[in-house]
Amino acid sequence: MHINRFILKKILAIHPSLAFKLFTHYWKAKNNNLYLFCYEFGFMERTENGKAKYILIQWQPCMR
Predict the structure, then answer these.
(1) What is the pLDDT of residue 6?
(2) pLDDT, position 47
(3) H/E element holding 27?
(4) What integer pLDDT is reported at residue 32 of this predicted model?
(5) What pTM was estimated for this model as a whole?
(6) How far is CA 24 from CA 12, 27, 41, 42, in A?
(7) Among 37, 51, 55, 58, which is disulfide-ready with 42 (CB 3.0 to 4.6 Å)?
(8) Phi, psi of 11 (to 5 degrees)
(9) Given the DSSP bridges, would you call strands 5-9 and 41-48 parallel, antiparallel or unpaired?
(10) Cβ atoms < 10 Å from Cβ of 18
């Protein structure tokens, strides 16, 4: 299974109207990464090289 993903710097993703504490459902990947979804778009916060980032994905039928 291949899932397209996008990585954003956290500072670019934060906007006053975004509430990353609110989500409609979640999906736990085989590697135990937990993505929180707001409808069809999911996000996961992680740190790479000491910088906070968000990984964004779109819900796919194979995620059931």
Answers:
(1) 63
(2) 86
(3) strand 25-28
(4) 94
(5) 0.69
(6) 23, 11, 10, 10
(7) 37
(8) -65, -30
(9) unpaired
(10) 12
Q: How confident is residue 13, by pLDDT bands cut at 50, 70 and 90?
A: low
Identify the burial level of 27 via C-beta atoms within 10 angstroms of its C-beta, where 0-12 means exposed, 13-18 middle and 19 or more buried: middle
| 42-46: average pLDDT | 86
Which helix (H) or strand (E) segment holds residue 44: the answer is: strand 41-48
∠ at Cα 37 (31, 42), nearest 5°? 60
Give CA torsion, residues 16, 37, 40, 17, to 10 deg: -10
Residue 64 CA, chain-centre distance (Å), reads 16
Beta-carbon contacts of 2 under 8 Å, excluding residues fewer than 6 positions away, are none
Greatest CA separation found in the chain? 34
Tokens of 37: 């979804």
